[in-house]
Specification:
Layout (H helix, E strand, L loop, with lengths): L4 E4 L4 E4 L3 H32 L2 H44 L7 H4 L18 H41 L13 E2 L4 E4 L6 E4 L2 E4 L5 E3 L4 E9 L3 E9 L2 E11 L6 E2 L4 E5 L9 E8 L2 E3 L11 H11 L9
Antiparallel strand pairs: 1-2, 3-6, 4-5, 6-13, 7-12, 8-9, 8-11, 9-10, 10-12, 10-13, 13-14
Helix pairs in contact: 2-4
């Protein structure tokens, strides 16, 4: 820096100024330098505190990405749990339709694990959302287990019900097209041969001799032979407490122990045993007790035929087949 000179008014001469450089340095340079240094230090501290080192910045960025990922997973889990709730409502509807008891709410909302179940997740920076995600996953697994068990019960019931429906007697043993008339109904009546009042445990279906007689449900033949009063008779065990009896056959077409399906021909209309004309005496028994067969094969009748048979059921002297 060039020397500075100042005019001396007494001597009228320019005199060299002493300490000007030092003064300039102290007053001009040092303050600016100090400010620059202080600003640099301050920025360094701020950068370290708020921004962090490159490694810290990378770690912070990774934490943020994980946080966003957990938020996405959590949202999907919550949506899935909502869908599961809807499935549970449908499930209760199905159970009601199939007359099954509801799944207790306490079972559907059953807890899982203790209070320290998620302790190992609480040491991380984003532990709160990690714990929330883990909880939702566990809740979903628990809910699904209960739901799967419920569906398994319904499926088993439906399959069993389907099998049961195939076994329960539900058609006439004589086809409508082959039927001449409905003979003696179910109930007490005056026996045309014995001439006494006694229980008629079935119904009489009149048809031509040799008309096919059909099994009214799936089952196993437990008797096929001659029996006093019944003549040639076939008895079928349908399971679920149901058995059926087909009597007065002219010929038996089934064998003892044979498995039959609904509609299979098991014999032919005849007049064997205590019978006055060709017909099929048909019984339905539940746990060994005779019950009204008409209730099982109304679907095989027209409405007029049903009304006629219903009226005949009230007439104790109706028919004279046996």
């Amino acid at each position: 820096m060039k020397d500075k000179y100042k005019l001396n008014l007494k001597t009228l001469k320019f005199e060299r100024q002493e300490g000007v450089i030092e003064d300039f340095i102290v007053k001009k340079i040092l303050p600016r330098f100090a400010f620059t240094v202080i600003l640099g230090i301050s920025l360094g501290i701020a950068a370290t505190y708020y921004i962090g080192s490159p490694a810290e910045r990378e770690a912070l960025s990774e934490t943020q990405r994980l946080n966003e990922l957990y938020k996405t997973i959590n949202n999907k889990l919550r949506n899935a749990l909502v869908e599961l709730t809807n499935i549970q409502k449908h499930d209760e509807g199905y159970r009601n339709v199939f007359q099954q008891d509801s799944v207790p709410k306490s079972l559907r909302a059953a807890g899982f694990g203790g209070t320290d179940r998620y302790a190992n997740l609480k040491k991380y920076a984003n532990s709160e959302i990690m714990v929330s995600s883990a909880y939702n996953v566990d809740k979903m697994i628990s809910t699904l287990k209960v739901q799967v068990q419920s569906f398994d019960e319904i499926i088993k019931y439906v399959k069993d019900k389907e099998k049961m429906l195939a076994c329960i007697p539900s058609i006439q043993p004589i086809a409508v097209k082959d039927l001449i008339r409905y003979g003696s109904p179910f109930g007490y009546r005056f026996h045309p041969i014995l001439h006494i009042y006694r229980m008629h445990a079935g119904v009489d279906l009149t048809a031509k001799e040799g008309t096919p007689i059909h099994a009214t449900g799936q089952g196993r033949v437990i008797e096929a032979g001659v029996q006093s009063g019944y003549g040639n008779v076939v008895k079928i065990d349908h399971g679920y407490g149901y058995t059926t009896v087909y009597a007065h056959m002219s010929k038996i077409a089934a064998k003892r122990g044979q498995k039959v399906n609904r509609g299979d021909v098991i014999g032919y209309v005849g007049c064997t045993g205590l019978s006055t004309s060709p017909h099929c005496h048909y019984e339905v028994r539940l746990h060994g007790k005779p019950i009204e067969p008409m209730n099982f094969y109304k679907v095989d009748m027209t409405e007029d035929e049903y009304q006629t048979f219903l009226e005949a059921s009230q007439d104790l002297a109706f028919g004279d087949n046996d």
